[in-house]
Amino acid sequence: QETEDWYKLTGMTPMGEWGSLRLRMRYLDDLIMPCEEYSPLQQLLLEPELYAVKALAELCHNDRVPLATALLRVFRHEKRETELIRILCQAEVARENETTTLFRGASLATTLMDLYMRAECSGFLQSAVSETVQRILES
Hints:
Blueprint: H1 39-45, H2 51-59, H3 64-77, H4 81-95, H5 108-138
Helix pairs in contact: 3-5, 4-5
Domain Ras-GAP: 63-139
InterPro entries: Ras_GTPase, RasGAP_dom, Rho_GTPase_activation_prot
GO molecular function, one term: GTPase activator activity
């Protein structure tokens, strides 16, 4: 639940000297169990055909970013993240009738690719374009 509201600040200095402060906070109450409690779920998610992952993709369309983040964490821990992305992308290609609309929708596959690229490729992107950007800024 997200709440947006203004709260009065009090301090030692006179009110005329105060600036303003606006915060956006998010409180999340999660129950985190011992790792061994997650083992059956992990085994289910890591099955080679990814049936559970595909079912979650269909059920959790509105929550695909948290789902993708959690799945990527699980699969990266097992060094199987490329397998996850490959299988979901293949399923999306098989499901799509028009090649012009491939990977345009907000799907679990595209969200996973986006998160993975941000995590793995930001250093490469910086090194690849930083010199060019610097020359543009200096000219």
